[in-house]
Amino acid sequence: LSRSAVTAAVLFALGGWFSTRDAVGGLPVYGLIGSLAVIGGGAALTPMLLSLFRRTGRGGLAHWFRIEGLLAHANLSAAVPRLSVSVAALVVSLAMLTAVAIMVGSFRDTVSYWVGQTLQADLFVSTADRAPVGPAATISEEAEQLIVAHPAVAAVDQFRTVDLPYGQDNDLIILGAGDFPVLLAHGGLLFKSPSDGRAAVARAAGAEMVLVSETFSLKYGAGVGDRITLDTPLGPRAFQVAAVYYDYSSDRGLVVMDRATFERHYGAQRPVGLTVYLEETADPEVVREELTAVLGTSRRLFIRTNATLRTEVLRIFDATFAITYALEAIAIFVAIMGVVTTLLALVLERRRELAVLRLVGAGRRQIRRMVVIEAVVLGALSQGLGLVIGVVLSLILIYVINVQSFGWTIQFQLPFGFFLRSTLLIALATALAGLYPARVATRVTAEGAR
């Protein structure tokens, strides 16, 4: 027991220390090592957890499950060394599931809030051609004029993008240009710094100033007031950072300047997207249908309403992480099977004891209930420790690995609904999984005691 405590303490300390180290070549190497140390610490705590249950669990099981609970406690207490490995495997699987669920849930809530704050336009127009650059990926002047001419359209913001090499390694960043006066009038960005982002946008309108995404700021160390150098057709030019804004659309880093500034340095270019603001009385869906009819299909344009685009963003987000949950479910299934296999081995070893119980009057139902209680107790202990380790692990995922990998700020949220659902699910899963060892145990007859 003392060895387990020391091992767990050392691993947790190492996990905390590694989590404070900087990235190596842009990769969260130490963060990953720290997360492995925390997982190892959770596994090392398993023998302590089982020993604590051996000392304190008897009264509770006896109160809730009577004689079957007492027998289940005695059986598990006698098998602590045998159970430690299989329970530790389940703890690790549940901890990883919990950590990923917290990270994904927090990320989704953050993205949902970001989408709600930044997607202020009523309609979004983009090209059907997914080519990153070139005439086929832009919106023609004719199409833009048809959109602007619609009586329900109050304002239109054009957006242009150019891929630029930046930094010592010539990483490709995205340079964007928009109409800052429209941005000021209708909103559209969520600022990290300064606190008065609107004033920063007003200063940057038409000036040699830019807005940079949080990812760009963290990756290249560019904060408010710093100057960055961008390649232009006329050579390198320096621009002052006016503000840093939150962005979750790309991990490459975005730099945005006013359209007037962009055209001075890069020339006039057709936009790759339009954000359309309608009059207050206009119905976005009706206007979308009217614009689609006016533009026709030959121009290959996508027109989405605000609600449709928000739904699509979250749908893509959920689909992206669906495979993560599938893999975690497989890992938990394998771990539960490990616990069941251990229980089955213990049942086979206790055949003579079970026969004695049958001889003194224990019925098949009582034997079955005893084994299922053992399975549920192991699942509950694993879930409890797994939740605690998972919360700690999620902090490393959100504040270390995510930041060093993508440069995104995620607002930490505890998904209490998930905690409740997963606890009930694990209890049900272990109870069902324990039915087979219980069935084997009920086949033992009193004659086996002779």
Structure description:
62% of the residues lie in helices and 16% in strands. With 450 residues, the protein is an alpha+beta fold. The chain folds into two domains: 2-15 and 40-115 and 314-388 and 413-449, no CATH class; 129-299, no CATH class. A hairpin with a 4-residue loop joins strand 2 (153-166) and strand 3 (171-178). Helix 2 crosses helix 3 and helix 11 packs parallel to helix 15 (435-442). The longest helix is centred in the last third of the chain and has 44 residues, at 306-349. The protein is elongated.
Keywords:
450 residues, 2 domains, 15 helices
Order of helices and strands: HHHHEHEEHEHEHEEEHEHEHHHHH
Number of strands: 10
The low-confidence parts are 130-136
Domain count, please report it: 2
Estimated share of beta-strand residues: 15-25%
Determine the N-to-C terminus distance.
38 Å
- Can you summarize the main beta sheet? 10 strands, mixed
Nearest-integer average pLDDT: 88
Radius of gyration: 30 Å
